[in-house]
Design brief:
Blueprint: H1 7-36, E1 44-49, E2 55-59, H2 72-85, E3 93-95, H3 98-101, E4 115-117, H4 118-128, H5 131-142, H6 145-159, H7 181-194, E5 206-209, E6 212-215, H8 219-222, E7 227-235, E8 239-248, E9 251-260, H9 263-285, H10 293-298, E10 342-343, E11 410-411, E12 445-452, H11 455-468, E13 477-483, E14 486-494, H12 496-508, E15 514-516
Antiparallel strand pairs: 1-2, 1-9, 3-4, 5-6, 7-8, 8-9, 10-11, 12-14, 12-15, 13-14
Helix pairs in contact: 2-5, 4-5, 5-6
């Protein structure tokens, strides 16, 4: 028996139904907007002109992310450094330790006690992304995992990688191991700049070891189109990461994407960003004036709601330089006006050495092919004599992540009193601590060489700078001035002339500094 409603009853039921639907509409609409925004909290990206250091596009570039296997870029950087210094040779025979053998996949799978040549361990690390071989290299260079992690973190600081800390050499999950897209762009560029003779290890397509063929994990590398490196990475926490580099028409572009949803979507996103970067380069070469490359990217759909983009409201940096040498006129550092290290565009790195000038037709950071595998008796050796092995120190505690940049007039240090200078090797264990400045020094000139979140790092950096520039600071005193959570490394009790002369000497050697007036 059907219940028949009168007309007033039917109108009342309809009204109640509309009210219920109206109440549901808000959360339903919100859910739809969130879904369309492409919410991906792991996503970060940056596109850089490798030659000039200009940042063409950036999205969450300074936010901390898990590096996964792109960690191995730093591992190989330190191996390249040791090769150049003559501390190791390509034909070194290394015994696999129990710790290295116990690393989870991906791996080469050698048992503890087996041996492998350094050259093969490097190839396994770049092509196979072998976690066990990254550990083999780390123990060979640093003596232990902890020692190598300390060296890696110190090197990151020296290169200007302000958001990076290492605790292992292969990128296996560890919540303490962090980096950023900008830092990985700095590292990519440093590898090409500092060790072009070894960079092509990252571009090996395939490699045969003990009768088995291994193919590079970088699918873009295998597809041609100018790609020549450099490293993939994945963990559940990091998502799909890729640092990529390509050369087209004499220009090299570096693209970093972190937190991709899949290897396929990550590769497609990197390719699209790379293509757009080269389109900017092509148009500029043809005479078109593209003042802010970021806008060019955003006009083509990159940024908020992009194919791999996140939903956070961070405003990306629109114009930048890796080392400040090639920023456009609109990005003039405000240091000349009295506000240190403030510019209309952030710098990707404030301390990387300026690369040597090249001819107009030269490809930025030309790289040599990786050494051809040879029989064990004919492996090439690094020619340099073996200096003293680098000192070791416990891992440095890194500063907290910088706040998001909200506009184009961005402080390079997000409100810090002065730019964090580059870290160098740890101070010798017998180094004397920084002395407290005499009260009278407050009325004298000073030279500030850095500002750090960690007081120990600030003191160690003072010691290192004084060691390298003894003549400039022979009559000065070292002090660390603490304020607002920052530890300023300063040489005090100087005259204006000596302070200015010292800072000029430091700047000539690519060491960041600033002259501080009395009472500042």
């Amino acid at each position: 028996m059907r219940l028949r409603l009168s007309l007033p009853q039917r109108l009342l039921a309809l009204a109640l139904t509309l009210l219920v639907l109206a109440g549901l509409a808000v959360p339903l609409a919100t859910t739809r907007v969130q879904a369309q925004s492409g919410d991906n909290s792991r996503y970060a990206a940056i596109v850089v002109d490798a030659g000039s250091g200009e940042v063409l596009f950036a999205r969450h570039a300074d936010s901390r992310r898990y590096p996964a296997s792109v960690t191995k870029m730093m591992t190989l950087y330190l191996v390249f450094e040791a090769l150049e210094k003559g501390q190791v040779k390509l034909d070194d025979v290394i015994t696999v330790s129990p710790l290295a053998a116990s690393q989870p996949p991906s791996k080469l799978g050698l048992a503890a006690g087996q041996t492998i040549r350094l050259d093969d361990a490097m190839r396994a690390t770049t092509v196979r992304s072998a976690n066990d071989m990254a550990m083999v290299l780390a123990e060979h260079i640093g003596g232990s995992q902890a020692g190598f992690a300390a060296l890696s973190t110190l090197k990151a600081g020296e290169l200007g990688m302000t958001q990076t800390r290492y605790v292992n050499p292969n990128g296996l999950p560890d919540s303490r191991q962090l980096t950023s897209a900008r830092d990985l762009a700095i590292l990519s560029r440093a590898i090409m700049r500092d060790y072009p003779q070894y960079y092509s290890y990252f571009g090996i397509h395939d490699w045969n070891y003990q009768g088995r063929e291994y193919r590079n994990t970088n699918g873009l590398l295998l597809g041609g189109n100018g790609y020549d490196g450099i490293k993939t990475g994945f963990t559940n926490a990091s998502g799909y990461n890729l640092a990529a580099s390509a050369v087209r028409n004499g220009k090299r572009v570096i693209t970093i994407v972190l937190g991709g949803r899949s290897s396929v979507s990550r590769n497609a996103h990197v390719a699209a960003l790379m293509d757009t970067g080269f389109e900017v380069e092509r148009r500029r070469a043809a005479g078109e004036r593209i003042q802010v490359a970021q806008t060019f990217f955003e006009d083509r759909g990159f940024g908020l709601g992009g194919s791999e983009g996140g939903a956070e409201g961070e405003t990306a940096v629109a114009y930048a330089s890796l080392n400040g040498q090639s920023a456009p006129a609109t990005a003039t550092a405000a240091a000349t006006t009295g506000t240190p290290y403030t510019a209309t565009a952030a710098l990707v790195s404030r301390s990387a050495p300026t690369p040597a000038a090249s001819s107009g037709d030269a490809v930025p950071y030309q790289t040599a092919a990786a050494p051809t595998p040879r029989p064990s008796a004919a492996r090439p050796q690094a020619p340099a004599p073996a200096p003293t092995p680098p000192a070791r120190q416990a891992p440095v505690q890194r500063a907290e992540a910088s706040p998001s940049r909200g506009n184009l007039t961005a402080s390079l240090n997000s409100g810090s009193p002065a730019a964090a200078s580059t870290l160098n090797r740890p101070a010798p264990s017998n180094a004397s601590p920084a002395r407290a400045a005499a009260p009278a020094a407050r009325d004298r000139w000073a030279v500030q060489v850095g500002a750090f979140r960690d007081a120990t790092v600030a003191r160690n950096w003072l010691t290192e700078v004084q060691r390298r520039f003894r003549a400039q600071f022979a009559s000065s005193e070292r002090t660390v001035v603490d304020a607002a959570g920052w530890h300023r490394s300063r040489f005090v009790n100087m005259t204006q002339a000596s302070a200015e002369s010292a800072c000029e000497a430091l700047s000539a050697r690519n060491v960041t500094c600033m002259v501080v007036r009395p009472g500042a």
